[in-house]
Amino acid sequence: MSTQARTLVQVEGLRVVFGRAARALLRPSTLVVAVDDVTLTVDRGETFGLVGESGCGKSTLGRAVLQLVKPSAGRVIFDGTDLTGLGERAMRPFRRRMQMVFQDPIGSLDPRMSVGEAVGEPLLVHGLKRHADAMDAVRELFGLVGLDPDSTDRFPHEFSAGQRQRVGIARALASRTEFIVCDEPVSALDVSIQAQIVNLLEDLRERLGLTYLFIAHDLALVRHLSHRIAVMYLGRIVEVAGKVALCEDPLHPYTRMLLAAVPSTDRRRERQRPPAVVRGEVPSPLNPPAGCHFHPRCPQAMRQCRAETPALRQRSDGRLVACHLHH
Ligand SMILES: Nc1ncnc2c1ncn2[C@@H]1O[C@H](COP(=O)(O)OP(=O)(O)OP(=O)(O)O)[C@@H](O)[C@H]1O
Ligand SMILES: [Mg+2]
After folding, report:
1. How far is CA 193 from CA 169, 186, 199, 258, 280, in A?
2. Is domain 3-326 annotated with CATH 1.20.1730.10?
3. For the ranges 59-63, 100-104, 200-204, which has the lowest average pLDDT?
C-alpha cells in the first residue's frame, strides 16, 4: 500500500495559541501555546492513543484536528485533502466523516431532545436520510451500540451515564463516520461500566473499519486499546511508539514517569515495584520552562536540556522521541 492510502490523518506542525500577547507592563501576556508544533500521522483502522497530564493540550489537539478550533499554524490533511483554509461549504463533507465522542455525554446532548432525535439529527443535517426513513436508521444505530431500539422516544436524563455514552457514540456514528476523536470517553464512568464502553468502541472499530484518536490521561487504559501511543507534555509530543515498545521500553523520562505511576496487573511485579516517583507539578502553560519543557521534573536533566528544545526525531528503529538523551 502507498503511504497515501495507509495514512488517514496527517498532522503537520500544528500549533494552537489561546489568549493575548502583553500590550503593556501591567497587562501581562495571557498567551498559552496549547498545541506546540505537533506532527503525527494516524493510519487507517488504527487506534492512536494520546496521553498526558491534565492541561497538556490533548483536547485542543483533538479539536484542532477536526477543525473545531482554528490552528494558528500547521496543516491537517484528511484522506489526502488539506483541510487548512477550507471554507465551511468545502468542509461540510469532512464534518460528516470526522466526529468526536466527549467525556460528558450529558453536556453534549440537548436535554429537551429525545435521544432518538439526537442520534437522527446528523442523518438529516448531512442529507443522508429523508425524515420518513430517519427513524429506522436510528433504531438500527441503537441496536449497533447496544441500546434498546424501543427507547428512542426517551430523554437523556432517563438513561444511565453508560447508556448516555452509548447515545453519544450512536450520534457520532450516524453520519457514516470514518474517524472519531474519542476525548476521554470513559473517564466520567464507573470502572465497571468503563470496560463495556471500551469493548463497544473496539468492536465498532473492527466492524465498521473506523479509525480513532483516543485521548486519555490514564496510560493503563490507552495501553489496553491503542496500536500506537503518543505522549504529550505541555503542548508538545515527546514520544511516539507502538504500544508494546512504549510500555516495555519507554525512552523519554516523562513516559517512564507516567508508566511508573500505572499499577501493574501482575501481583508479584506490583509488590516489587518501587514507589511511584511523580516529581513535581506540571509548570504553568502561561510560562513554560525554556528548552525541554520537562527538564525541571526530569531526573536525568542535563545543562543542554535547560537551553535547547529537543526536536521530535525518528530513530533508526522508527521510534520517535524528543529528548537530548536519545539524540
Ligand atoms: N478556549 C480556551 N481559551 C483559552 N485557553 C484554553 C482554551 N481551551 C484550552 N485552553 C488552555 O489550553 C491548555 C490545554 O488545554 P486542554 O483542554 O487542551 O488540555 P487537556 O490535555 O485536554 O486537559 P484535560 O486532561 O484536563 O482535559 C490549558 O492550559 C488550557 O487552560
Ligand atoms: Mg481534555
Report:
1. 15, 8, 10, 24, 32
2. no
3. 100-104
